[in-house]
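Minutes, project check-in

Agenda point 3 was the complex the collaborators sent over. CS summarized: two entities, 1235 residues total, and the question is how they sit relative to each other. Sequences were read into the notes so everyone works from the same version.
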Amino acid sequence: MPFTRGWGQTRSRPKTSIFRSEIMSLVQLYIPSDVARFTVSQLGEMGLLQFRDLNDDVSAFQRSFVNDVRRFDELERKLRYLRTQIERSDVDIYDFFNEEAVAASRGPRDIDDMEEKIGAHEDRVLRLTAAYKDLQLKHLELIENKHVLEEVSSLFVEISGRQQTAAAPASASGASGGGAHDSVPLLGRSDSLSRRSIGSLDAAYAGDAGGYDVEGGTMGGGHDINIGFITGVIRRDRVATLERVLWRSLRGNMFLNYVDIEEPISDPKHDEPVYKSAFIVFAHGESLRDRATKIAEALGATLYHVDRNAERRQEELIETMSRLDDLQQILENNNAARINELTNVSEQLNTWFTIVRKEKAIYHTLNLLNYDANRNCLIAEGWCATNDIPAIQSALHLATEDAGSNVPTVLHELRTTKEPPTFVRTNRFTDGFQNIVDAYGVPKAGEVNPGLFTCITFPFLFALMFGDLGHGFLMTICAALLCIYEKKLAWLAKDESLRMFYTGRYIVLLMGIFSMYTGLLYNDIFSRAMSMFSSGWQWPSDQGGEGVTVEATKLGHTYPVGIDPAWHHAGNSLLFTNSYKMKMSIVLGIIHMTLGICLQVPNALYFKKRINIVHVFVPQIIFLFSIFGYLVFAILFKWCTDWYARDAAGELTHISPPSLLNMLIYMFLSPGSVGESERMFRGQAALQTVLLLLALACVPWMLLVKPFILRREHQKIISEGYGRISSHVRVSSEDDAPGGAIIVSEQEEMQEDDFDFADIMINQTIHTIEFCLNSISNTASYLRLWALSLAHAQLSEVLWTMTFLPTLKMSGALQPIAIFCGFAVWFVLTFSILIGMEGLSAFLHALRLHWVEFNNKFYDGTGTKFEPFAFKTILDEAEE
Amino acid sequence: MKEIYFNADAGYLEGVVRGYRDGLITAPQYMNLTQCETMDDLKLQLATTDYAPFLQNEPSPISTSTLSARCTDALVAEFQYLQQNSAEPVSRFLEYITFGYMIDNVILLITGTLHERDTHDLLEKCHPLGFFDTMPALCVATNVQDLYNTVMVDSPLAGYFRECLSAEDLNELNIEIIRNTLYKAYLEDFYSYCQSCGEPTSSIMAELLKFESDRRTVNITINSFGTELSKDDRTKLYPRLGNMYPEAQIRLARADDMDQVKSILEQYGDYKRMILSANMNASSDSAGGSDMSLEDIFFANEVQLNKDAFEQQFHFGVFYSWLRLKEQEIRNIVWIAECISQQQKDKVNKYTPIY
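CS then shared the predicted structure for the full assembly.
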């Protein structure tokens, strides 16, 4: 049954604690439409109210404020455009943030102003950028032209130079000599000039040169049989393609040469500067040249006219250079203006972004509200913590004042049977632990929140597996630094991999502190023992030498805190610590599970289900205690007994320490009798029989009683004539609301589930079997505490003896260096493997013990999280 | 055995492509799209789909052509992501998919050049997936021989060109013939490649390619009515595969009008169903010719086949199918956009639903 709350409770403020989630109220707001925007804005600043969507059936673009949303979408697009322009021109975006403008409530006029400003800026930047691009294009042309002139000239100078000498006697025209003459210098040149020309092409050209001669001959060697050429610039990676295609298409009747232009050229068509090459193609005949031109242009080359005449070329080059200089000037001026404009924008950009995002969020929220045209007001519904209602109310007042309106917003609570969202009020410290719980499941409203217990049990269970004073100390230091400088280090939260450590800093801190405590108990510091007090054992002073077993003698006293350091190097130390830690794990595990089972009681009390206490909790606790409670008792009993005590006659008072494992097994296998080796106290056999019977009796109790009681109650209701009520349970607000409000929300049908005995029975069977089996497997599962702590201790021991210890035993001049290196290796490995990786694995196991062994005893975790409308979350999301 | 290693080479890509598939617009989203009144509404609705990042920076009054271009950009971006992350044999398969676009581009360029369009405009219109290095040089080709020797010879399509070389010069008819011959050779080659991929790729792709081939066969037949194309030549253009190969193809080659085509198609269970519903559409909606509805029905059938391809795992067909579905989706969006911008809301529901 969902949790219900009486009307009268509102006035007395319920206490806030992490033990249960906040008590929530479904509130309804009647907002006059002229203050709606201010109100939502105020609420967004406070982040206390989660709006419900009252227009579920209306699609996004049919809602009332869709035009406003669109308007801010457009503004955001403009801002994005400005930002990309700013980023592209390497202008720094000021981190300046106009808190005042962002926080203060904005009137519609402010928004209009802002929109106008942004629009004007965008316009100007657009124009400037367009002009800039235009200029850049011209600039590009000139630069390319310059390169072509320069590179190609060098080619020509030599060609013409040779032509002059070769062709002068024959023809007056320098450039258009006979074909044969032309081909010779060209060929001769090709090696030295075509720095990167493809060899095979040269060869091909050589082959073709013959054909050329013949042709030239038939044309009579006239003036016009010149080698025409085209020059241009093309992207460097296209040169090979151009060459290939040209060669193929002109059947080899061409010669291409190209020179790479060293520096990249910024082409406005591309975002990044591109590398280009200048090329020259020689081909004869108008038609072939046309084809070559077409192909080159199709492949994206830009062609430039280059004159044959060297002087003219020189002139052209000079002219180009001077034009380039002029253009450079203009370009710089233009760019300066543009940068200036962008700098102006960048000062405001962050502020504007924030405002626009906030406004957009406001209108998105307004779209969730119901518009009442008659009363000219908007009706909002939403969840908030009952405790926060006064705060919300004051926010509403503030908003009304801001808007300068005198019609107040009316807030009142609705009574509802709806399941409220879960709001657990956390602080910096509890937040991390609550996250651990939420990852498993968000508590149902009113349910006991395991987050409270997790705060202590989690680091404690972790520490049991990570018990080492030294490692714990290092961990504590790291976490403490994170906590002390948490404001300065807040940027860590933005990094994906470091976020985990940052948000979990308080968990790590507690884990470290607890590890120091358990390390003290285990008497482990970096796998070494500490002798803070005098040991309770004494080794014989005359050591027998290699291979001789010596026995420590017991002194009168016990080591006051933790494990006696004498155990550390004892031959049977593993035997001792294993048995000790194993028993400890069982004892702590049972305690932990008992806590879990007991937490059913507050749940049952809260939801008023007595049946869950009497017929679920009681048999469960009896079952657990009669088997494992007895085991714990036996463990403690065994610890407390001195099994080697002798009586006055010097005889052992006890036969031998009992094997508890066998005792437990034979408790089931041969009830009523206790073997000689397992005997601990008188009446043990009888006690065991009683406990076994109790446990067995609990099984049918758990299985059958609850379903049958439920069935009887159900039948009673039916027989009394109360059928199923499935009409609308309408929550009318007419009586409560001033002026008789309209019912805005039809409450959904009350979720009165059908009574199906078979379902309940099956459910109960599963639960019973699960509980009985789990009590065994979960107890065994706590043994991981022992296993992990053993592994941790052994690993650190190995690390110590393998890396650092040998250097301490060394002698000679090298020892200091060896110690230095050995320590470095040891420390790095300690930090990365023992603290980093081992810590992570212990963390995971502690997590599992909480999620599985602890939570499944009482926790449903079927709630939904409370997600209030808050600008903070919206802005954070937009940042990412 | 192959399945064991499948995930090593293609597991990631298959996962990605299935994710893309889940990003396809669903029926309720189409509902919302068709209800839009203006292009702005449409843009707003598309903001909840995978197209959002490609549309969000467009200034607000958006035109249908921009919308279509941006949607294609989205498709290309996704396909290129697949290509960039692929290794043999997936990369080879993806390459094969692009050949079809290359053929379209080649034909577009030749036709454009024939009509003396500006080369750069033509290049803009080319599908980005069918781009290859030497493609721009197509604009100088004036006859088939030239075309082959200059450009096609080192393009991936060179092998397909062999059969086209008999054509003399480039005119409308020849270009169509070249297109269909190329496509025929491509389909046959793709088919045989898929068969070499082994099960289950081979059987799934066989299904899809056979359907494609049948569709082309029917289209060639219908389009050749009333042209100079002789019936023998027509036969040469039919891809030599498909459900209708060879028997029905021989009969289709002799067909003279739509009715004959339909009667031939009706002898195939699947196609009979298609024709029946096509007839119904034609009668209920006299404005759209029966041709049109036949095409639509082919589209609908194709969508179904492509959806089926996702029912199996460990095969490459998903890549092909996803691309086809995405293309269909873009056609749908553009159709809806056209209807909205031309105020023809009554026809807006004539898109081919996918999911």
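Noted in discussion: The CA atoms of residues 235 and 253 of chain B lie 6 Å apart.
Follow-up: revisit at the next meeting once the mutant set is ready.
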